[in-house]
Design a protein that fits this description.
Elements: E1 2-7, E2 10-15, E3 24-32, E4 38-46, E5 48-52, E6 59-60, E7 67-68, E8 83-87, H1 92-112, H2 114-124, H3 139-156, H4 160-185, H5 194-224, H6 231-239, H7 266-294, H8 321-355, H9 363-374, H10 383-407
Parallel strand pairs: 2-4
Antiparallel strand pairs: 1-2, 3-4, 5-8, 6-7
Length: 411
C-alpha cells in the first residue's frame, strides 16, 4: 500500500509493507532540497527502525513527552541528513549492543575510581592498619598516601584486575536487564511512572548481582589483603575454607557446599541492591527528564525532531556531557545514601572468611555484632569516601553508557 500526501514544505511518500510483526523496521529518511523543502520517505522492513531528525530547533514537550517542532527560519533552509536507529528491544542485536555499551561504561567508571574503592573497602572492613583514618574527610587521602608509600601506584589499584573481570559482565547485565525490564513494564512513554522506574532498576540490579557475586567477593578479598596475593591462589584459599561445609542451626536449611564460600553476604547484597539500583536508575531518569523539560541549555544544540516510532514516541533529546555527569552524580549520591548500611554489613561478611575461615556468620548476626561494637555510627563508616567514590562512579557510568548508546545506534 502506498500513500502520497502533499504539504506546503514538500511531498511525503509512505510505503507500508503488510508486516505487522513487532520486530519490523520503520525506516524514515528526510532529504532537504536547496529551497528548504523536505521530502520524507518512510519504508517498513525487518530488524530495526530508522528515523531521520528534521528540525534542529526542536523543543522537548513536558505535556506529551514528545518533541514539538518549532518554526524554521530562512537561515535553517539547508539541512544535513541524519539517521537515528530505534531497534527492537527483544532482538539479539539490541541485547548484544546494550550489553557491550553497559560493559564499557562499567569498566571505564570503575577504573577511574579504583584507588578510592580500595581505601573504602579497607575502612568498611575495619582493617587494623587503616582504621585510624576512618571517620574523617581527610582520612581517605592519608590512607591513600600510606598505600602509595608501601606498595606504590600498583597498591592503589590492587584488586582492580578482578574488578574489571567482574564489572564488565555486571554492568553489561545490569544495563541490558534494565532496558528489558523497562520495556516490559513501560512499553511506551505514556506508561512511565516513578514506581515502575524504581522497580525496573531494582530488578536489573538483583539480576546482575546473581550472576556476578563470586567475582565481587574475590575483588573485596584482594583489596582487603595488604599484601599482594596471586589471584588463583586466593580463589583456591576461598574455596577450601571450612566454613563452606558448616552451617549453624538457624541456617541448617542452606545446602553445605564449598562453592558457598563465594557467596558470603549474598543475601545482604541482594537486599541492598534493591534500594541502590532502584534509586540509581530512578533518580537518573527523573533528573534527565527534569533537565529536558525545565533547563533548555542542558540540551545539545542543533538536535533534530525526527519522526515518531511505531508507538508515536520521538527520540529523547541528548543532554550535554556536563548535564549527564550532573544527573549521574546526583543519582549516585542518592543511591549510596539509601543502601550504605547494608553495604557495610555485606563487606563485613565478605572478609569474615579471612578473619575466621571456620565460621559462616549470617547477615543479621553480622549486623548485631557491628551494632554492639560501634553502635549506629558503625553502619556509616566510610560514607564520606563512599560519596567521593560513588558520585563520580555513577556519573561516569551513566554518561559513558548514554554516549555508547548513541555510538551503537541504540539511543
Amino acid at each position: 500500500m502506498a500513500t502520497l500526501s502533499s504539504t506546503s514544505s514538500g511531498s511525503t511518500l509512505s510505503r507500508l509493507h503488510p508486516n505487522n510483526n513487532p520486530s519490523s523496521v520503520h525506516q524514515h529518511t528526510t532529504i532537504s532540497s536547496s529551497n528548504g523543502s523536505n521530502n520524507t520517505v518512510s519504508t517498513t522492513g525487518l530488524g530495526f527502525t530508522e528515523s531521520v531528525e528534521s528540525n534542529p530547533k526542536a523543543a522537548w514537550s513536558k505535556e506529551s513527552g514528545r518533541v514539538a517542532a518549532a518554526d524554521e527560519s530562512a537561515n535553517d533552509a539547508s539541512r544535513h541528513k541524519k539517521i537515528a536507529v530505534v531497534r527492537d528491544r527483544k532482538s539479539l542485536d539490541y541485547i548484544a549492543r546494550t550489553m557491550f555499551a553497559g560493559g564499557i561504561a562499567g569498566i571505564t567508571a570503575k577504573t577511574a575510581v579504583a584507588p578510592l574503592d580500595r581505601v573504602k573497602i579497607l575502612f568498611q572492613a575495619s582493617n587494623p592498619h587503616f582504621e585510624k583514618y576512618a571517620g574523617t574527610w581527610t582520612g581517605v587521602f592519608k590512607a591513600a598516601r600510606d598505600i602509595h608509600k608501601t606498595s606504590g601506584v600498583h597498591g592503589l589499584f590492587q584488586g582492580n584486575s578482578a574488578t574489571v573481570l567482574r564489572i564488565f559482565p555486571y554492568a553489561a547485565i545490569k544495563f541490558m536487564a534494565y532496558e528489558q525490564y523497562r520495556g516490559l513494564l513501560m512499553p511506551t512513554r505514556r506508561d512511565e511512572t516513578p514506581g515502575k522506574k524504581f522497580v525496573a532498576g531494582s530488578m536489573a540490579g538483583v539480576t546482575s548481582v546473581f550472576f556476578t557475586y563470586p567475582l565481587d567477593l574475590i575483588r573485596v578479598r584482594l583489596a582487603y589483603n595488604t599484601k599482594v596475593t596471586p589471584y588463583m591462589s586466593l580463589v583456591r584459599n576461598i574455596y577450601n575454607e571450612p566454613a563452606g561445609l558448616y552451617r549453624p542451626p538457624h541456617m541448617a536449611w542452606v545446602p553445605a557446599f564449598k562453592i558457598s564460600n563465594f557467596y558470603r553476604g549474598f543475601l545482604c547484597s541482594v537486599v541492598g541492591m534493591i534500594p541502590y539500583a532502584g534509586a540509581s536508575f530512578f533518580t537518573h531518569d527523573v533528573m534527565q527528564e527534569f533537565c529536558r523539560e525545565n533547563i533548555p541549555w542542558t540540551l545539545k544544540p542543533n538536535q533534530n525532531r525526527g519522526l515518531p516510532d511505531k508507538n508515536g514516541d520521538y527520540s529523547r533529546p541528548e543532554l550535554r556531557t556536563v548535564a549527564e555527569l550532573a544527573c549521574g552524580g546526583i543519582a549516585g549520591a542518592v543511591s549510596q545514601t539509601a543502601s550504605y548500611p547494608l553495604e557495610v554489613v555485606r563487606r563485613k561478611m565478605q572478609v569474615a572468611g579471612a578473619l575466621d575461615p571456620k565460621v559462616f556468620v549470617g547477615m543479621w548476626e553480622t549486623a548485631r555484632r557491628l551494632y554492639i561494637a560501634k553502635g549506629a555510627r558503625g553502619f556509616f563508616v566510610g560514607l564520606s569516601i563512599g560519596y567521593l567514590k560513588v558520585t563520580p562512579l555513577v556519573a561516569i557510568s551513566f554518561t559513558v553508557y548514554e554516549r555508547m548508546k548513541t555510538a551503537l545506534d541504540i539511543n
